[in-house]
């Protein structure tokens, strides 16, 4: 190992017991122009240890590794294709890769998946150049690990780790399996040399080498943006106008060439070609804001539905996405610059409530993005349903969605009418013979709030039994978890995001015979949330109205394994009582 040279040798022997284990084999390498696969071979053995197939380097498939949405990339993948005839079988894989970038030193995580036991795993870091290293050991206390560590070299060995069984709502494996993170204090990234030992220094290096001098714009663009914002004195409105400008004039395309995987295209280039990846479009928005004297910061984040933090306690090259932070006196405005439809300061579901790296001229800083509390993740529905003499229905449904609930619906605007109708027929699949007569959508991007008004009808809502009819009172379904029974749960369970559902259904029935028995009201409250349902009757003219008020809230949180049964019982009670029914003796 040197500052600009690293050799990675792998040797893996894996026994696959069934087809579910196929995804854990990974006998291959991803490389680019800054790395080279020097050696690669594999041997397949049957269940008796007899060799049945051998792969030399020339037998490996070698293809471009261009992911969806990527315009151009120099990444390639070299791998084997093997279809087993029988299980179990064993694959022995070895490789040697030489890399010119040393900023990404491989970590050691012997257990990479649930249902995977480890007979033996070792990790050796040799460092003849004596470059100072940093390393962080996680979850060692409950494991028997042999190790030899120094300021420059590392060696770890662990044996006989049993497989961890997957449990619903269980934590990420990294929270309890052995794990070592490693970084060099002096490193290279595609020929660019650096030195850093903490986030402030690493952020400063990234700013100076990857972001600096990339904000220049054509005078014509600066003048256009100046004219666009000239009539406004409100800084938030200026940010909104510039963000709209980016959405209307650019599109997302990924470009991954060399250092381009980490360095954005310049603002000048993006202005010319009108496209870019998350880095380029974020930097372009930063340049446009900068042209109007509005400061903003490049923010590296782990994007995804699962909330993953940048590790504030260990500085290394992390993240898979970039967004923009605009710091104001009273709040931070967050901009998702790759989307042509996401509202300003809306990041729910993909980059919300997690620690990110802010990169500025002063260096790096770890901050947390906007959190959407359970009260804000609201879906509120009011529906008026008219039941006819044969049990069919017509309904007007009005619904509003906020927070993370907004993110699940607002892009329906981009669908054509047939696709919208199909969406609702799938959502309301429990309504037999459903027809969607009219759909009205209002997308308030400033709140943001998405409003739906739907006119629905169906051939049958009630169920006839003899001379009676059964009327279900849950017109829409609740998003309720399906939780398996577990008498010996080992790990805690977690809900990352809360939900808040508020429903009111009014059923109009053409009957004269009074309904003598109503379902009992339900009021369940505990630390996990609450569920309430209340049913009442009102006479309105010649019709009888049944009014159903139903509220369900689920709190985010982390709870110990011993509470899983209690939580499951709560969820099952909600499931059993969220759709009570009334028996009606006759419908005129």
Uncertain residue ranges: none
Distance between the termini: 86 Å
Largest sheet: 8 strands, mixed
Q: So what's the overall shape?
A: globular
Radius of gyration: 29 Å
Tell me the number of strands. Answer: 36
Count of DSSP-assigned helices = 8
Question: Going across the major beta sheet, what is the strand order?
Answer: 26-27-25-24-31-34-33-32
Fraction of residues in helices? 10-25%
Structural class: alpha+beta
Question: Could you tell me the strand content as a percent range?
Answer: 35-45%
Overall average pLDDT: 93
List the helices and strands and how they pair.
Elements: E1 6-16, E2 28-31, E3 35-45, E4 51-55, E5 61-64, E6 70-73, E7 76-79, E8 89-99, E9 118-125, E10 133-138, E11 145-149, E12 154-161, E13 179-184, E14 186-189, E15 192-195, H1 199-211, H2 219-229, H3 235-249, E16 251-252, E17 254-256, H4 267-273, E18 275-276, H5 278-291, E19 297-301, E20 321-327, E21 332-335, E22 355-360, E23 363-368, E24 378-387, E25 393-401, H6 403-407, H7 417-427, E26 435-444, E27 449-458, E28 463-465, E29 468-472, E30 493-495, E31 499-509, E32 522-526, E33 529-540, E34 543-554, E35 557-559, H8 564-577, E36 581-584
Parallel strand pairs: 6-17, 16-18, 24-31
Antiparallel strand pairs: 1-8, 2-7, 3-4, 3-8, 5-7, 9-12, 10-13, 11-12, 14-15, 19-20, 19-22, 20-21, 22-23, 24-25, 25-27, 26-27, 28-29, 29-36, 30-35, 31-34, 32-33, 33-34
